[in-house]
């Protein structure tokens, strides 16, 4: 997408300063996505898988699953990565 954006804009617009900020935003987007996956989605997924294996799939899909203190803490830990993303 950045390659296309660079080619469709006027050459005067694409200054080194603009290019620097676009690179920073691209990396921030990738860091935010990685943070969401590795800080929240994978740990909660593993907890949910463990719950499904112990009690059944129906139990791991209940809304009470998300009310557990550990799951709530992990979900709150997701907030900084959501803000970056």
From TrEMBL:
Q: Does the keyword Zinc-finger apply?
A: no
Which terms are listed as keywords in the entry? Membrane, Transmembrane, Transmembrane helix
Domain of life (superkingdom): Bacteria
The protein's matches in InterPro entries, at most eight in alphabetical order, are given as: Cyt_c_oxase-like_su1_sf (IPR036927)
Q: Which sequence ranges are marked TM in the entry?
A: 21-47
Recorded protein name is Nitric-oxide reductase large subunit
Q: Which organism is the protein's source?
A: Staphylococcus pseudintermedius
């Amino acid at each position: 997408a950045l390659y296309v954006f660079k080619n469709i804009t006027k050459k005067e617009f694409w200054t080194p300063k603009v290019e620097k900020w676009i690179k920073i935003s691209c990396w921030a987007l990738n860091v935010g996505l990685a943070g969401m996956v590795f800080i929240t989605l994978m740990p909660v997924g593993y907890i949910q898988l463990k719950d499904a294996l112990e009690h059944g799939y129906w139990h791991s899909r209940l809304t009470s699953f998300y009310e557990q203190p550990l799951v709530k803490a992990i979900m709150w830990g997701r907030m900084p990565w959501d803000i970056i993303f």
